[in-house]
Amino acid sequence: MDEAWTTVRQLADGVPLREALGGRDSAECWVALDLAVRWLSPEDLPVHAPRGGPSLRWDWNAALPTFRRARERAAEPEPSTAIALCHPDGRIREAALDRVSRYPDLLPLLVVRCADWAAPVRDRARALLAEAPPAALVAQAELILLLGRRGQGGFAVELLGRALREGPAEALPPLLANADRATRRFAHRIAVERGLLPPLRLARIAARSGDVVLQDLCAEAALRQSGDKDVLDVLLAARPPRVRAAGVTALRRAGRFEEARAHLTDRSAVVRACARYVVRQGATDPLPLYRALCTGESVAPGAAAGLGECGDRKEDAGTLWALVRHPDPAVRAQAVNGLRALDAVRRESLTPLLDDPSPAVVRAATRALLPHAAEFPVEWLRERDAPESPRAVRVAARRLLRAAGRPCAG
User: Fold this and answer.
1) Bridge partners (DSSP) listed for residue 56
2) What is the pTM of this model?
């Protein structure tokens, strides 16, 4: 806001808009500029003559809202118009809209006024924006979408959407790589609607994106357009779990049921669940597979978790208790999670894991033991809350103390 205030002060002194902005041209910058004008003193606000009438200035000292005649200040037309477009009085804002066409750099403020709270200002601004070329709308996509969150911001968003849907495809690539998340999402949705992105590229976007909305959008679109092996392989090897889950689920439609077995031990619970679904669709029960995976020489952590997710408490709890003593801490942690899923937790047997050297195992044991927190001796827990205890042990002790309704030592 300090930068916006500096810009406004320079505009009030007649500094050209681009120079006053100092290279700041983000969507947030224009919104902040609109708000900062409201902090100008009455004498700094420009005076305009609506439709050729007398020059008017808002009289802040009047008992009721009123105008008084005033002499035009010596100011550059562009900066003066910029401030007038953000003027506290709607009649001044409306009058300034007719001057926007002279100054292309003021288009962002025209977009701001399309979401104005005053209907006359809003309607006039929308009529002018509707005449703007599509390229100008695309250039203001980030600002339009930011203002689209306002109650009156939908009009400009519709204009932008129409421009991107009906305009040349070349307008979309810069928006697909835009730094603003909302802009990227909007552009990808339209690109998918227009079929501008091939399935393999969509799969790669889903696999590499850190945005869960784009992950779902692009993965679903890629699978809708193609079930080729290359597309599925990209999804199945993706780092985001929801993308891998989409790929695993698509194995059923491709008739590749056997390949889903490799994902039964995935590190993600949602992927394991999808893999079990596909395996069952191939007329195979995943439970015997999990039992074999958990009793072999090499046990994957996901196998222990999966056995707990679909196993039988009476028949499989013993296998998981044996894995609680496994040398791999990841297996120990997932075995605890499996016991919790089977509702087979025993406080006495899991308590030693609160001192496990692996923080992941300590966290898993703590989650499993929270329902039994009241059964722990308070002093025993407070001893583990001592400064010399490992951090994971201290955190576990405090969580159990709070769950038991007991104050922590510190």
Assistant:
1) 48, 69
2) 0.82
Q: What are phi and psi of 270, to 5 degrees?
A: -70, -35
Tokens of 123: 């309607």
Structure tokens at 146: 């930011």
The dihedral region occupied by 89, where left means phi > 0, alpha psi between -120 and 50, and beta the remainder, is beta
CA 118 to each of CA 20, 338, 357: distance values in angstroms, whole numbers, following the listed order: 27, 59, 64
Q: CA dist 110 to 85, 104, 115, 216, 326, Å?
A: 8, 10, 9, 34, 66
Q: Show the low-confidence residues of the chain (pLDDT under 70).
A: 1, 41-76, 408-410
List Cβ neighbours of 8 (8 Å cut-off, separation of 6 or more).
Answer: 33, 36, 37, 39, 40, 83
CA 179 to CA 184: how far, in whole Å? 7
* Rounded Cα–Cα distance for residues 134 and 147 (Å): 18
pLDDT at site 72: 44
Tokens (6 digits) for 293: 């995976």
Whether the Cβ atoms of residue 280 and residue 239 lie closer than 8 Å to each other? no
